[in-house]
Write a structure and sequence with these properties.
Blueprint (H helix, E strand, L loop, with lengths): L10 H9 L6 H13 L4 H18 L3 H14 L13 E6 L6 H14 L4 E6 L6 H12 L3 E2 L7 H15 L3 E6 L7 H17 L6 E7 L5 H13 L3 E5 L9 H9 L3 E5 L7 E3 L2 H8 L3
Parallel strand pairs: 1-4, 1-5, 2-3, 2-4, 5-6, 6-7
Antiparallel strand pairs: 7-8
Helix pairs in contact: 1-2, 2-3, 3-4, 4-11, 5-6, 7-8, 9-10
Length: 292
């Protein structure tokens, strides 16, 4: 990972306090279990990690904290290999998620990243519902010198996506990033709207969208699991952007989501600046999670 937030999650400090006396008995492992639960790994994953780490510590004669770190790394290393790559132009990238996860800012960060790589990008303001969303994306577009395709507030989001892909075809753009409205995973009507956006894009280019990225708020805790489940089935999610990692003292939801659904984590949001979107790196993430 290019860099991580300046402070760790605090989990490492707690684990070192648990095992600092040199003992690794039942009491200490129970306290370690509570620490992992507090970091948002979730009950099932926590039990699996603790059991496997205990076995590692015994087998390899390793310190408990080293065994835990090795177990977490091995689980993330088992993720499907899914590097973020663009295909034949235009590659359509659909950003989805619930309200308030930072999709619009993530769209701008991703556009900036592709731009720095020499790619031509078009932004699609398909969040026609949230007041100010279209204007926010336009401001980012002006700042970056990237065209933004938009319609009036309340317009059909699928029509916006259609226009953006058509514009990319006409201009020979490398990528279209579609910013969609936040929607609760329990809203069937809004999830159906998302499916419509996908269908419109597929009619224009049967092999698109290239990526469907679920933007997950790293501070959201175990609710991230239900979000991932619904968007995976209804939107065909191909990867996760873990946003707001700099704003949490937990962050274990990435492990929980991957552990259950095996969805690759593609990027992490590590700050508020336009350049603060980094490719996910499992080793750096575990180092951050277990830092003091």
């Amino acid at each position: 990972m290019e860099r991580m937030p300046g402070r760790g999650s605090g989990l490492g400090a707690r684990l070192r306090a648990v095992f600092g006396g040199g003992r690794a008995g039942t009491v200490e492992w129970d306290e370690a279990e509570e620490a992992l639960m507090g970091a948002d790994l979730g009950p099932q994953l926590t039990l699996e990690v603790i059991a496997a780490a205990q076995a590692r510590a015994t087998r390899d004669q390793a310190l408990p904290t080293d065994a835990l770190a090795a177990e977490l790394r091995s689980r993330l290393a088992a993720a499907p290999d899914a590097p973020f790559e663009l295909g034949p132009a235009p590659s359509v990238i659909l950003l989805v998620g619930v309200n308030g996860t930072g999709k619009t800012t993530t769209a701008a960060k991703l556009a900036s990243r592709l731009q720095r790589e020499g790619r031509s990008v078009i932004l699609a303001a398909a969040d026609t519902f949230r007041p100010g969303a279209v204007e926010q994306l336009r401001l980012w577009g002006d700042r970056l010198g990237i065209p933004v395709v938009a319609q009036r507030p309340g317009a059909d989001p699928a029509a916006v996506a259609f226009d953006a892909v058509a514009a990319a075809d006409a201009r020979g753009a490398d990528a279209v990033i579609v910013d969609t409205a936040g929607r609760l995973q329990t809203s069937q009507d809004l999830m159906a709207e998302l499916a419509k956006i996908r269908r419109v894009i597929e009619r224009q280019h049967p092999d698109q969208p290239r990526h469907v990225l679920l933007v997950l708020d790293a501070t959201i805790g175990q609710n991230g699991l239900s979000q991932a489940e619904t968007f995976l089935s209804d939107a065909g999610v191909t990867g996760i952007v873990l946003a707001k990692l700099d704003g949490t003292a937990k962050g274990g939801v990435a492990l929980a989501v991957h552990g259950r659904y095996r969805i690759p984590i593609v990027f992490t949001g590590i700050g508020e600046e336009i350049g603060d979107l980094a490719p996910f790196d499992a080793d750096a993430y575990v180092d951050w999670l277990l830092a003091p």
